[in-house]
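Issue: ligand-bound run for adenosine monophosphate - logging full I/O for the record.

Environment: standard queue, default settings, no custom constraints.

Inputs:
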Amino acid sequence: MSQNDNLFKKIMRGEIPSSKVYEDDEILAFRDIAPAAPVHILIVPKAPLDSLDELTDDDAMIAGKLLICASKLAKELGFASNGYRCVINTGKDAGQTVPHLHLHLLAGREFIWPAG
Ligand code: AMP
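Outputs:
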């Protein structure tokens, strides 16, 4: 699947509906369609990056923005004090299903560690 055609690109172009929680020039955040926790938000860079594996030093700004966006949303949506988990599935063994870098922001329940 080419970068123009992946699911998250279609969501960014508005071709597939999403429940948006944040957007700026570089990032889109929306609720996961199959939530794994009471709060499950996907934070997605608009740049054509297939996965964490593709990041280079030139991407330091966007990598930081993903994490800062997660931290800000946790505070704004009121779950920062209870805690939350950020996950970036990368590649086959991690179960990445959409070939576009995205950070899962999960909250609203307790999470076990190590993760399964
Ligand atoms: P991953 O398995 O890490 O690649 O995560 C992909 C995520 O995208 C999964 O948690 C899916 O539930 C989610 N997902 C798939 N289709 C949609 C959609 N149309 N809107 C929102 N989330 C989606």
